[in-house]
Amino acid sequence: MDTTDAQAGTVDMLATTWATLRDSGLRLLAVAADARDPSLGDVPTLTELGCPVDGRGFGGLWAPAGLQPALAQRLEAACLQATNSDTYRSVMSNAAQVVAPLDARRFGERLKAEEQEAHALLAQLGLIVQ
Question: CA 13, 29, 97, 101: dihedral to nearest 10 degrees?
Answer without folding.
Answer: -120
